[in-house]
Amino acid sequence: MKTKLLLSTLLLSIFAISGFSHGTEKHDNNEKKVVQKKEPSVNDNSEKSLEIKKALKEKETVLQNKYKKINEEYLENIKPIFEAKCFNCHSSTTNYPFYYKIPGVKNMIDKDIKEAKKHIDFSKDFLFISHETPINDLKSLNKIGQKGGMPPLRYIVAHWDSKLSKKDKESMIEWTKNAIELLGEK
Ligand code: HEC
C-alpha cells in the first residue's frame, strides 16, 4: 500500500516537473512569436509603420472632409424637408399631435417613434445616428426619394401636409446621389 502511494507520488512529481518544464518551453516559444509578430506592427516607430500611420490619418481626414461636405448640403437643402416631414418620428424633437392623448393612440405613436429612431435618428444631422453605415443610410434615403414609403401611410392620412412633394423627392435624390458618388460608391 505504502509503496503504491510512494510510486504514484513519484510519478505525479515527474509529470508535474516535465509538464512544468514543457510549459515553460512553450511559453518561451510564444514569447518569441509575439516578439516576431510585433516587428511589422503599427505600434513601433520604424519608418514603415510611421508611413502607414500617416497614410491612415490622411485617409481618415479625406473621409471626414467628405462627410462634412455632405452635411453642408444636407443642412442647406434637405434638413428643412426632414424637419417638416420626418422629425416627429426620427428625432428628439417630436411635436405630438392633439390626438396623442386619445387612449390607444398614444401607445401606437410611442411605438412608431421608438421603432423609427431605432432605424435612423436625424437629431444630430449627418452622420445620422443609425445602426447602418452612412452609405447604407444614403441608399435608403435615395430609395425613399425614388419610390416613397416614408412617412408611413397612416401618418400621411393623419397629417395630410406631411407627404413628400415631387420637389422634396427630387432634392433627396440629388443630395443622396451626390453624396454616394462622393463616397466613391454606386
Ligand atoms: C409616423 C412616424 C414616421 C415618420 C413621420 C417618418 N418615419 Fe421613417 N420610419 C418610421 C418607422 C416606424 C420606421 C421603421 C419601420 C419601417 O420601416 O416601417 C421607419 C424607418 C425609416 C428608415 C429606415 C428603413 C428604410 O426604409 O430603409 C428611413 C431611412 C426612414 N424611416 C426615413 C424617413 C424619412 C426620410 C421621413 C420623412 C420624409 C420619415 N422616415 C418619416 C416612422 C416614421
TrEMBL record:
Residues 73-180 form the Cytochrome c domain. The keyword Metal-binding applies. The keyword Nucleotide-binding does not apply. It comes from Poseidonibacter parvus. Residues 1-23 form the signal peptide. This is Cytochrome c domain-containing protein. One of its GO terms (molecular function) is metal ion binding. Residues 24-46 are annotated as: Disordered. Keywords: Heme, Iron, Metal-binding, Signal. InterPro entries: Cyt_c-like_dom (IPR009056), Haem-bd (IPR025992). It comes from the Bacteria.
